[in-house]
Design the sequence.
């Protein structure tokens, strides 16, 4: 099942059970089915009762699927990517945070900061937490705690990452965390691939099975450090092939079985 948050572009909706004037274009959650977005009450990890309102896909603007209290990222989780930056495979998961203020929606522009001369894309498969968890037991099934999976671009100021011991600045600029457009509740991680395209040219391609630390290990491990809340996002690392973005580029992160996250790139002050 594909879940999203969206904003209707117009008031109009089919299947109304109330009067059209009651349907305001404010953000809401939905299920995507049969080429339409069906409104559901509350957040995407709550009960999926439909309200009776639906919109055609082209009649909505997709928002980030949730509002995370934190975005936890795993660094160097694909061996070829660790090597391309001159690093060894980590002995245990290497985690860092992106601030909630870095989140943007699909189609919203990534802004290249004035402070950096080298901003890279990092296409990743991301996990959305659906139920609070902490101190999960070794081998505990993580599935009940997951809302699903989405596409995420862990945008990185590579030059600042190299000179800073802490990556807060390099990873934390406004607009550096596009994710979405939908959350797939039943992704087959055994078959999932993540690809990144810049201006239509494929730059990255990886398989979830290539992760050094698989999703269940990551979630259990992070839960030893911090409580994960519904709506929190865990980015699982990027495969090899990272590269720079320039103003005017369009970057797309595609995860098979989920969809494509697309964002234009603009310079600071453009
Ligand atoms: Zn990353």
Sequence:
């Amino acid at each position: 099942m594909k879940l999203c948050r969206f904003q209707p572009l117009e008031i109009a909706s089919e299947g109304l059970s109330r009067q059209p004037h009651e349907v305001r274009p404010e953000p809401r959650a939905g299920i995507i089915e049969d080429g339409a977005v069906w409104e559901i009450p509350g957040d995407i990890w709550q009960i999926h009762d439909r309200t009776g309102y639906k919109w055609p896909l082209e009649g909505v603007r997709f928002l980030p699927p949730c509002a995370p209290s934190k975005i936890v990222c795993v660094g160097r989780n694909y061996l070829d990517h660790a090597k391309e930056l001159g690093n060894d495979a980590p002995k245990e998961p290497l985690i860092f945070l992106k601030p909630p203020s870095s989140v943007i929606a699909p189609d919203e522009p990534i802004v290249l900061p004035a402070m950096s001369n080298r901003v890279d894309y990092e296409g990743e498969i991301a996990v959305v937490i659906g139920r609070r968890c902490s101190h999960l037991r070794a081998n505990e099934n993580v599935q009940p705690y997951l809302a699903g999976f989405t596409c995420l671009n862990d945008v990185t100021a590579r030059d600042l990452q190299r000179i800073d011991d802490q990556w807060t600045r390099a990873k934390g600029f406004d607009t550096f965390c596009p994710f979405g457009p939908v959350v797939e509740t039943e992704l087959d991680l055994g078959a999932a691939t993540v690809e990144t395209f810049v201006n239509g040219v494929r730059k990255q391609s990886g398989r979830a099975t290539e992760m050094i630390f698989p999703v269940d290990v990551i979630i259990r491990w992070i839960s030893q450090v911090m409580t994960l809340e519904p709506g929190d996002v865990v980015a699982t690392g990027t495969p090899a092939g990272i590269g720079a973005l320039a103003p005017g580029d369009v970057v797309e992160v595609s995860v098979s079985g989920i969809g494509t996250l697309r964002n234009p790139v603009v310079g600071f002050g453009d």
Summary: The chain has two domains: 2-63, 71-267.
